[in-house]
Batch of 3 targets.
Target 1
Amino acid sequence: MPYVLVSTQVRLESGPCTVGDEDSDPELMAFLEAKLIKQLGNNFLEWNTPLTPRLVLNRLEQKGYRVVTMTGVGQTSIWTCHKEADKILI
């Protein structure tokens, strides 16, 4: 899985962060200390971690990911991280 989206609410910049959907790599999610949850009102699952965005990005860098873009949407900050195919361990 070469892409990971990391998002957090601006008012909650100290965490939690959403770091994946229900199809994300469970080993990577464990490394990010994420738990699979279902938010009230949603019909899908997502991985949330109590870590701050900086700590999440630092951990992803340890696994070979790099930030390719960052944006803000309303009150949400979103980072897109990518891992090159030759760095992906299968």
Target 2
Amino acid sequence: MGEKRSVMFVCLGNICRSPMAEAVFNDVVMQRGLADKWYAESSGTGGWHVGCSPDHRTMTVLRNNGIKYKHSAQQFSLEDLDKFDFVFGMDKNNMDFINRMKGSDNTKAKVFMLGSFDPEARTSGKTNIEDPYYDTDIRGFEKCFQQCMRSCQAFLDEHN
């Protein structure tokens, strides 16, 4: 058996989208019997939520979909680009941040927008997984969950 491949999901504050993606990815990995092949974490480009639990709406959507999850927010760092095999941004702003940090240096990580793997986004061209933080209800979080599920499944279909 080889070394586990690793993924890092990155959003703005690491309390909504990226922890949702991490939890979904780990659930899909478990469902497919691939836990010995993959390792996942998530982080944010900003540090203001470091140490905080995910947004209560993220946790509600995960629970409603049968996913147990525990997480403390952390900030993305330059070292993550050499620690992880794949780094996924949730939107264009996250990708710009990651790519600026990466610069022209050769790093281990392959960097992608997570939504670029979503089969629905491939036909619509809408690859951003929008930040639901300021939504007044849970629908944005449910949409985020569905996008993460489709994207993670498709990524694993291509990389296993």
Target 3
Amino acid sequence: MSDHTRIERIRNEVIHDKVGVAPFEDKMREARLRWYGHVRRRITDALLRRCERLILEGLQRGRYRSNKRWGEVIRKDMTQLQLTEDMTLDRTEWRSMIRVVE
């Protein structure tokens, strides 16, 4: 696809730029925010929304697990793209705001 072989030892970033593929981190952020929008548009009595409201006190992660939670990562992603929770209600606007184009 890019006319290079592994023997040439060209960095992935160079090939991604040449082919026009979006960075992996951006695509992962898009997928997380797409799922978040799906969850936020559900009714508040849905199982997903009830689990979201659970407060787990005294819960400790395993020894080698990071302390990041899904909600913290979502908040970071939203601040990075300057998004608000109200934007999730309009699906077309939300999808256009989180879309990664390359």
